[in-house]
Amino acid sequence: MTHTSAPSAAREHTVESFTREFLREVNFGQGVDLDRASTNDKYLALARTVRAYLTTRWLETLRTQRREQKKAVAYMSAEFLLGRQLDNNLLATDLDDIARDSLSQLGIDLDELREAEIEPGLGNGGLGRLAACFVDSLATENVPSIGYGIRYEYGIFRQRFEDGRQVEEPDEWLRLGSPWEMPHPENAVNVGFGGRVEAWTDESGRAHRRWMPDWHVTGVPYNYMVPGYRNGRVNTLRLWSARATQAFDLAIFNAGDYTDAVRAQTQAENISKVLYPEDSTPQGKELRLQQQYFFVACSLRDFVEKVLPEDYDLHRLPERITFQLNDTHPVIAVPELMRLLIDDRGWEWEDAWAVTQKVFAYTCHTLLPEALEVWPVDLLGRLLPRHLEIIYRINEEFLEQVREAFPGDMLRERHMSIIAEEPVRSVRMAYLATVAGSKVNGVAELHSQLLRDKVLSDFAEMYPHKFTNVTNGVTPRRFMALSNPRLSALITEAIGEGWLTDLERLRELEPLADDAEFRRRFREVKDHNRVRFADVIAARDGIEISPDAMVDAMVKRLHEYKRQSLKLLHIVSLYERITSGALPLADVTPRTFVFGAKAAPGYVRAKETIALINAVGRTINADTSLEGRLKVAFPANYNVTLAEKLIPAADLSEQISLAGKEASGTGNMKFALNGALTVGTDDGANVEIRQLVGDDHFFLFGMDEPAVSDLQASGYRSASYYEQDRDLRAALDMIASGAFTGGERGSFVSSITGSLIERDRFMALADFRAYVDAQERVEAHWADQEAWTRSAVLNVARTGYFSSDRSIRDYLARIWNA
Ligand code: NBG
Is the CB of 665 under 6 A from ligand 1? Predict the structure, then answer.
């Protein structure tokens, strides 16, 4: 498949030269003969062959940037959930066909090698995947940029089910080698921790502060190439790996304790050992703060000392860079830059602050108050004493401004303080970012509005100009071209090439929604993708599904606010109504309910919900009286690789969070772009999706955010819904009776149903009736396949706005001024 006529590697390289280089890599890179080479040998050799093509362009990109010194963007993120690299790099370089031909002449199946790659799962969910989409779009939009993050040795855990319960296993993604990274130990950076701060006076009598850390860690940069889509640009993603500093080891070793020296090494390396598997709920662990400081300290030093020219005048830093802070995780970079400028370079506070306030911008990704990161001052002061001093001073000056702007308003001052006093004295990282950043953005219109009106309203009043919105997006390279080649080919046939980098052009498909032949072909693609997905989960998980049934998908991290439990209540209610005779089997739409979700290992309720979904699934799937009409499929270890197979196959996309809780969502965009219809609340980016696709092609249900607030204010009593809605009560009673748990009624079953009936923090019961009604509208629409397909085509045609290329252009215009 070809997408564009832009310059591409393919022109310069023939199958023969590709084969020659591939064989060279097999022989000299892997040190084996082709006939003795394992799949992994061949995969690594292929990866390095492709990498070599990229390297030429990468070096050229770097040379150009060194020459031109254009304003760039550094995207700082604790997570980059990249997904497999080989596929994407073949696509970006247009080498796919050449590689396929070359390998097939050698009797090798390209797809088998693709499958050999273990995806780098260096992220939890939407936030990490967004970072990956953004670096792809930055390169494709031809923006000079660099991504900074952590090279975790273990990414997000691998999930298994044992008796339906989640079991976590370490993700050994580096086990078979990692051909896409280039380590540069010679460019390592030293980072300090702990110790104390000293005062000293220079010859002119000026007072200074000096941090004397008591231990150090070395950060080794690993470079990854991030190719733009067939445009010749290859940007850099630089991930840091922690090593013990030699000096540190040696001192202890010389003192004669070899085992202590080794222990010190382990302690240092722990910093980049593992990704914390919490999503949207930070845990406040010391190692986590070490990780955060580690990577931003390495990155700032790297940028200032290695990326910038040697004599660069740092007063001009804002002309050259924006450090975009992906959530609060990298916010400790703010006091670090201040420290670099003041302590290391002798700047005055005012000058340092002026530069700092211009170079940082902050993206907030949540609305849950408990998800806003805070660090106890005890911990922060112990680990980073100088940074705490700097934060205090920033806060003092900021509160001075607050007093000036709102004289006598003590309450406001306390609310806005970067330092919280209760329940323990802590630093509110979101406030620090808001005060320090030149801009603060939310990730969907509704989210940005709620940030302004609720979560950060005092700040929005004080700094109205800082607040802006950039609605999230997803890269159509991975989530259309790579994952859905048939749909992509059909689109190209219909509207020509070029849409993949200009996604609004999908609009040109609109008239084809009324073309019966186009709809037939569109359905054919869906059918094919459904079969492909069925094959994948049969082989991967041993799950059998009918490829003819509607694929109804709810895939996202397991969280109460996302309301997987509401989906479960719908399924159980259907089942209850069938078994009690209220719903004739003939009226039941054949559906496969697909779940994909990891729970944070310490999040008990989320893990119980997984166990319950699996228990319900087991019962329903085994009940022959249903004649296979309903099926629950919950493949374990949902990840980017599986998403690429599921999303193109989906008919219905479940986006059912409680309104006002999901900042944006990005899965919702991927599904719509692949022709699934959404059943969703008025939340996050659902709002914008619905506005674009139109109410007739989107199943809206439930309370909107103001209604949620009102209900909360007037006193929500979930039990009354249980009492008044017969179907809801029957569904909850059926679960509580142990019908799905072999008669077992205690333990997690009663704790889930009990907490829904008694408390129901995310108001699943309040939205139940509206949700079931929406599902009936879904079924009625599905019954008319022509009408459904028309809606599906319109979903694709009208959601081009959600390309991450557009998000990046919005960041450029509203935040980076680049
Ligand atoms: C998540 C939100 C999602 C959003 C992604 C990307 C965090 C803290 N936030 O709604 O929950 O789509 O960020 O912006 O993980």
Answer: yes
b or e along 211-241 (b: 16 or more beta carbons within 10 Å of the residue's beta carbon)? bebeebbbbbbbbbbbbbbbbbbbbbbbbbb
Whether residue 24 contacts residue 16, with contact meaning beta carbons closer than 8 Å, is answered with: no
Strands of the sheet with 677-680, listed across from one edge = 630-633, 591-596, 550-555, 652-655, 677-680, 699-700
145 Rama sector, left if φ>0, alpha if ψ -120 to 50, beta otherwise: beta
Measured in Å, residue 279 CA sits from the centre of ligand 1 at 9
pLDDT in tens, 759-811: 999 999 999 999 999 999 999 999 999 999 999 999 999 999 999 999 999 99
Phi/psi-derived region of residue 466, left when phi > 0, alpha when psi is between -120 and 50, beta in every other case: alpha
Q: 167 - beta bridge partners?
A: 160
Question: Ligand 1 center to residue 367 CA distance, Å?
Answer: 9
Query: Hey, what are 509's tokens?
Result: 């498909």
Asked whether 267 and 209 are in contact (CB, 8 A), the reply is: no
The two tokens of residue 392 are: 């205090």
Model pLDDT for residues 657-687, shown as the tens digit of each residue: 999 999 999 999 999 999 999 999 999 999 9
Angle at 135 between CA 130 and CA 136, to 5 degrees: 95
The CA distances from residue 701 to 13, 776, 777, 778, in Å, are: 53, 11, 10, 11
Distant-in-sequence contacts of 395-404, Cβ < 8 A, 24+ apart: 395/419, 397/353, 398/435, 401/462, 402/462
Strand residue runs (E) in 128-247: 145-150, 158-162, 165-169, 181-183, 189-193, 196-201, 207-212, 215-227, 234-244
Q: CB of 77 closer than 6 A to ligand 1?
A: no
pLDDT, position 610: 98
- Phi, psi angle pair for 804, to nearest 5°: -70, -15
Indicate the pairing of strand 677-680 with strand 699-700.
Answer: parallel
Residue 284 DSSP class: -
| CB < 8 Å & 24+ apart, contacts of 163-168 | 164/610, 164/611, 164/614, 164/615, 164/618, 165/607, 165/610, 165/611, 165/614, 166/598, 166/599, 166/601, 166/607, 166/610, 166/611, 168/277, 168/601
Question: In angstroms, rounded to a whole number, what is the distance separating the alpha carbons of residues 81 and 638?
Answer: 13
Q: Do the beta carbons of residue 800 and residue 506 sit within 8 Å?
A: yes
In testing the pocket of ligand 1, which one of 443, 555, 669 has its CB within 8 Å of the most ligand atoms? 443
Element spanning 376, H or E: strand 374-376
Best residue among 561, 664, 666, 670 to mutate for probing ligand 1, ranked by most atoms within 8 Å of CB: 664
322, two tokens: 């924006």
pLDDT per position as a tens digit, 714-738:
999 999 999 999 999 999 999 999 9
